[in-house]
Design a protein that fits this description.
about 270 residues; alpha/beta; TIM Barrel; 2 domains; 8 strands
Length: about 270
Amino acid sequence: MSVQKEIKKVTTHTLQKMKAGGEKISMITAYDFSFASIFDAAGIDIILVGDSASNVMAGHETTLPITLDQMIYHAQSVVRGVNRCLVVVDMPFGSYQSNTQIALASAIKIMKETGGHSVKMEGGEEAIDAVHKIVSAGIPVMGHLGLTPQSIYKFGTYTVRAKETDEAAKLKKDALLLQEAGAFAIVLEKIPAALAKEVSESLHIPTIGIGAGGHCDGQVLVMHDMLGINVEFKPRFLRTYLNLHEQIDTAVKQYISDVKSKDFPNEQEQY
């Protein structure tokens, strides 16, 4: 009788141990069952069900239009494909900013309806009360500082954040506030590498960088960018590991050609 090997699940505690041991954390976005299954089996530490679904799945210009129910649908699909990695679900714009009671209700709805393991929220001091309330209810929260895409209309640009002294000081303070409020990790997006290093070293919780240099405790990329599906987005921080856009285009054109020329299906491909 074969003994099935126990799958060691990645938890918030695992991430804490990884930071303490100097092991980097890998994180990628996913929005459906099929890709989540592939990423989980490949050994990714964290899957983020990102509100970037608004852009890459729904075609919106910003992350703002995606709703709580739409995020829940994507997260449900992802969770069905996962056996071992930690699943973090983005709380979309409007689901936590107005008051702490709405924030808690949104987080509870996500946890109950998706089977996800944690939620992610953008913002520092302005979101602290909501973070504290959600963590107090037993729900793990990942923070997000630096470039916060839900605030794009406030900033007016996707440029690097916290280059100025005042904004850098606020980010450092916000990181400590998030840690004190009970966040288990913080995403640092598009900030100077030196600042990310300083913040990462000041915290006992892990930092996950995107465009924040190599001194963060982990890294995250959007799957459509990393796999070369989305070819329009080419920031300096992105490393493209595949050119799926080109490969898919070639495959589909070949399929069309084979259908038109009556090459497909052949005698071996029919009953």
